């Protein structure tokens, strides 16, 4: 798990991001993903569609427990 700290509406928040294996990163490269309980449960090119799919699969899960992320393509480089 990786902890990410930020602010929302002037409140400090801490998000626990699961570490994704290289195989998972390769599989979802260039896509948005939804993660629940450390597992990828939806993916696609549009984050809103991915979120809606996650909500459909887990209707009782609080919104703050559904993690959305984008997996960059392998050739993406941050300098």
Poorly predicted ranges (pLDDT <50, ≥5 residues)?
A: none
Spatially, the strands of the biggest sheet line up as 4-3-5
Regarding quaternary structure, what we see is: single chain
Order of helices and strands: EEHEEHE
List the helices and strands and how they pair.
Elements: E1 2-8, E2 11-17, H1 22-27, E3 31-36, E4 39-44, H2 47-57, E5 67-71
Antiparallel strand pairs: 1-2, 3-4, 3-5
Write a concise keyword list for the protein shown above.
79 residues, alpha+beta, three-stranded antiparallel beta sheet, two-stranded antiparallel ribbon, 2 helices
Describe this structure in words.
The structure is a single chain. This protein is 22% helix and 39% strand. It has helices at 22-27, 47-57; strands at 2-8, 11-17, 31-36, 39-44, 67-71. A three-stranded antiparallel sheet has the order 4-3-5. The protein has a two-stranded antiparallel sheet with strand order 1-2.
Concise synopsis of the structure shown:
A hairpin with a 2-residue loop joins strand 3 and strand 4.
